Amino acid sequence: MYPAKHFSLSLPRGEGQDNIPELLKQLAKELEAVDGMEVMDIVFRNEIDEDGVDWPSFTVYLNDLRQ
């Protein structure tokens, strides 16, 4: 087993939740703030909410280089 840290990111539910360019900007900000971690993988997924609206998200897997 390989230990990894992870976080998921999506925009708040509601108007604009399907704005992929804004989500990518938020992802870039989060990645810039990661210190001492190596990005192992980034997974994109898209859910459809109960109103039929896209709700994309990213999950980022990290290797903690400080350990």
How would you describe the overall organization of this protein?
With 67 residues, the chain is an alpha+beta fold. It has one domain (5-64). Helix content is 21%, strand content 43%. The protein is built from one helix and three strands; from the N terminus they run βαββ. Strands 1-3-2 form a three-stranded antiparallel β-sheet, covered by helices on one side. The longest helix is centred in the middle third of the chain and has 14 residues, at 20-33. The protein is elongated, with a radius of gyration of 14 Å. It starts with a strand and ends with a strand.
Question: How many β strands by DSSP?
Answer: 3
SSE run: EHEE
Work out the helicity level: 10-25%
Distance between the termini: 16 Å
Uncertain stretches: none
Query: Class by helix and strand content?
Result: alpha+beta
Portion in beta strands:
35-45%
**How many helices does DSSP assign?**
1
User: Please, what is the average pLDDT?
Assistant: 94
What is the count of distinct domains? 1
User: Widest sheet: strand order?
Assistant: 1-3-2
Main sheet overview: 3 strands, antiparallel
If you compute it from the alpha carbons, what radius of gyration comes out, rounded to the nearest whole angstrom? 14 Å
Overall, the morphology is elongated
